């Protein structure tokens, strides 16, 4: 009997210990899972991730033609996704309607409605009988538009996060991260249930053991030894002193520390994708993209000096003294000028002081395009840091980029020397572009 009881008591202790360990491990795992989830989520919305994504199976040239037709004729009223602008979003329309129906609709929707076509009448009524204009397109042109719409839907499906910046994450489009979130959600629920079950188990066992203890103490004659066993207390210092527990705690601690340290070291000063909110909702996509204003018009010193200037409010006023004066965003420019205070743009690209970088050397002398380093600025509503701007990034490009020595006598001898000693191209690096002193004062 005594043996059995002492066995029960010991088991209780063991279960309690196991419970503590499980708790520690599950929380560790959960934290890990969460950080991975967060990582995937941020990777998911990494700007620019849709660029270069393969579209559907149709001929890219056809899709491009369709894209142009769509932008010029349809985009004022339709999105190629599911947003309603004036008319319905056209995502999936080739599934909803037959091709011949679409062709007749786009050529002359009114005629189709008057012919009594049920679908045509229904969609016409749904959108409050707004007549869509007729388009004198050939069948092939219409098919190219449809191919473009399909391709857009494929892009959205292949790369679920078609998000331009860190804001404006459209719900529903984020299938990727949502799905991960859902799985994470289930795991959370399972973990919580497990923990509750464990707690219930432990409490029940503790109750049983205390009941037994009381019973034994009251109703039995016990020897000294037995008493000791029955009345032994749960000793936390034992748990603390136990080798297994100590090693485990140390291990968890070390792993967490390493993980943190690694993240910090790898991430120090690297701000790829950094896209702060600016005081005025200025869009490069609108200005440099749609209205094709030259970069140089605003960043006036980028070809002449070390730094590319940020335009003053006066440059904005060249146009906005006339354009969109009533817009609240434009009013902010007026306020800045009235108060004689510069607009406080948040700086995005910033090398540490120890490094020397010169714009004119790269843009004017080297002929490197802005986009090579800054990415597709003309497509960005909000500018984000496209390149890592690390030392490795600078040096990699210097190693790979041939120097433009054509028609520059200064280089003739250097190139000859280089060709005598090496087979590779005469790169920026061959000219000393990887010497520390070139980039560090
Ligand atoms: C001036 C606005 C406007 C323009 C421009 C326009 N649409 Fe429409 N479109 C509509 C409206 C509104 C509807 C909804 C039906 C209605 O009220 O006639 C519609 C409906 C449609 C539908 C039917 C959708 C469905 O779910 O059945 C298709 C397809 C369509 N448009 C394609 C196009 C294409 C392709 C172009 C460009 C070549 C275009 N539309 C240009 C306003 C427009
Ligand atoms: C109409 C004026 C205008 C034009 C044209 C323009 N920019 Fe800008 N640019 C700005 C303003 C204002 C800012 C600061 C606000 C911001 O970051 O959006 C800026 C910021 C930037 C930045 C980030 C600067 C930082 O803080 O690190 C880069 C890079 C940039 N522009 C590149 C370009 C390139 C490349 C082009 C041509 C394709 C261009 N810009 C055309 C006005 C302009
Ligand atoms: C060369 C002409 C030009 C210059 C310079 C210019 N803009 Fe614009 N801006 C435009 C045009 C054109 C539009 C589009 C107006 C429209 O949509 O009708 C626009 C639109 C805008 C809008 C959107 C307004 C709205 O509510 O729709 C903002 C904000 C803006 N500009 C800010 C600026 C700032 C800030 C500067 C100076 C750094 C600047 N712009 C310089 C031509 C210019
Ligand atoms: C070889 C790469 C490279 C090219 C090409 C390049 N930039 Fe930059 N740009 C940078 C780096 C690096 C910085 C950060 C500089 C710093 O912090 O000192 C920067 C910063 C900027 C800034 C912020 C202001 C500043 O000078 O720090 C603007 C605006 C800008 N670039 C615009 C442009 C435009 C416009 C072009 C094309 C005409 C261009 N850049 C071409 C690498 C480049
Ligand atoms: C996209 C390619 C590219 C990137 C990225 C790049 N450079 Fe360059 N760099 C060039 C080219 C091309 C030249 C040569 C220009 C010429 O013809 O003299 C050059 C030249 C230079 C020179 C002058 C070298 C000499 O021999 O006189 C310095 C200094 C320099 N770069 C610094 C930097 C720094 C700092 C960075 C990173 C912040 C950087 N570069 C990133 C392409 C690049
Ligand atoms: C082509 C330009 C270039 C050359 C050549 C270059 N560096 Fe750098 N270096 C940079 C840039 C840019 C940074 C800043 C990177 C950052 O902020 O992540 C940097 C950063 C550093 C740092 C500081 C790192 C930190 O974390 O703060 C050291 C140290 C350094 N470089 C040493 C060197 C040495 C030594 C050489 C010669 C073997 C050298 N660099 C050659 C561009 C260069």
Automatic annotation (TrEMBL):
<feature type="transmembrane region" description="Helical">
    <location>
        <begin position="189"/>
        <end position="212"/>
    </location>
</feature>
<feature type="signal peptide">
    <location>
        <begin position="1"/>
        <end position="31"/>
    </location>
</feature>
<dbReference type="InterPro" id="IPR009056">
    <property type="entry name" value="Cyt_c-like_dom"/>
</dbReference>
<keyword id="KW-0472">Membrane</keyword>
<dbReference type="Pfam" id="PF02085">
    <property type="entry name" value="Cytochrom_CIII"/>
</dbReference>
<keyword id="KW-0813">Transport</keyword>
<dbReference type="InterPro" id="IPR020942">
    <property type="entry name" value="Cyt_c_III_dom"/>
</dbReference>
<protein>
    <submittedName>
        <fullName>C-type cytochrome</fullName>
    </submittedName>
</protein>
<feature type="region of interest" description="Disordered">
    <location>
        <begin position="38"/>
        <end position="57"/>
    </location>
</feature>
<keyword id="KW-0479">Metal-binding</keyword>
<dbReference type="Pfam" id="PF00034">
    <property type="entry name" value="Cytochrom_C"/>
</dbReference>
<keyword id="KW-0408">Iron</keyword>
<keyword id="KW-0249">Electron transport</keyword>
<dbReference type="InterPro" id="IPR036909">
    <property type="entry name" value="Cyt_c-like_dom_sf"/>
</dbReference>
<dbReference type="InterPro" id="IPR002322">
    <property type="entry name" value="Cyt_c_III"/>
</dbReference>
<feature type="domain" description="Cytochrome c">
    <location>
        <begin position="61"/>
        <end position="153"/>
    </location>
</feature>
<dbReference type="InterPro" id="IPR036280">
    <property type="entry name" value="Multihaem_cyt_sf"/>
</dbReference>
<keyword id="KW-1133">Transmembrane helix</keyword>
<keyword id="KW-0349">Heme</keyword>
<keyword id="KW-0732">Signal</keyword>
<feature type="transmembrane region" description="Helical">
    <location>
        <begin position="248"/>
        <end position="270"/>
    </location>
</feature>
<keyword id="KW-0812">Transmembrane</keyword>
